[in-house]
């Protein structure tokens, strides 16, 4: 049964500017495992990755119904599986979390669906 759905659209330039202004921004958004992935990416891909994870975590908060604040960015972790599919590997929800991320050259869109009563 679907518990909640969250969608977010984030401008890549906005997140790049936040990171440029505060070099600790990425550490406030990304978990240690996500930071390890981020560190091995080219600069353009780093901006897409950071914006994507930021967007997913915003979507997660919306799906949960609390928004970011009551649930922190570091409470949610999204890593790619062996095929490159994003998977929520850590979160405070007692159920299944499904995620999708897409981007253009300037924007990232994400969607999170939270389900209860599934395997």
UniProtKB/TrEMBL annotation:
Alphabetized UniProt keyword annotations: Cytoplasm, Fatty acid biosynthesis, Fatty acid metabolism, Lipid biosynthesis, Lipid metabolism, Magnesium, Metal-binding, Transferase
SUPFAM superfamilies named in the record: 4'-phosphopantetheinyl transferase
Domain 4'-phosphopantetheinyl transferase: 4-92
Domain of life: Bacteria
Main location (coarse class): cytoplasm
Reactions this protein catalyses: apo-[ACP] + CoA = holo-[ACP] + adenosine 3',5'-bisphosphate + H(+)
Binding-site residues, Mg(2+): 8, 58
Subcellular location field: Cytoplasm
InterPro entries, per the entry: 4-PPantetheinyl_Trfase_dom, 4-PPantetheinyl_Trfase_dom_sf, ACPS, Ppantetheine-prot_Trfase_dom
Cofactor(s) recorded in Swiss-Prot or TrEMBL: Mg(2+)
GO MF annotations in UniProt: holo-[acyl-carrier-protein] synthase activity
Coiled-coil positions: none
E.C. numbers: 2.7.8.7
Transmembrane portions of the chain: none
Enzyme class: transferase
HAMAP family, A to Z: AcpS
Protein family (similarity comment): Belongs to the P-Pant transferase superfamily. AcpS family.
Function in brief: Transfers the 4'-phosphopantetheine moiety from coenzyme A to a Ser of acyl-carrier-protein.
Protein name from the UniProt record: Holo-[acyl-carrier-protein] synthase
Organism: Loigolactobacillus jiayinensis
Lineage of the organism: Bacteria, Bacillati, Bacillota, Bacilli, Lactobacillales
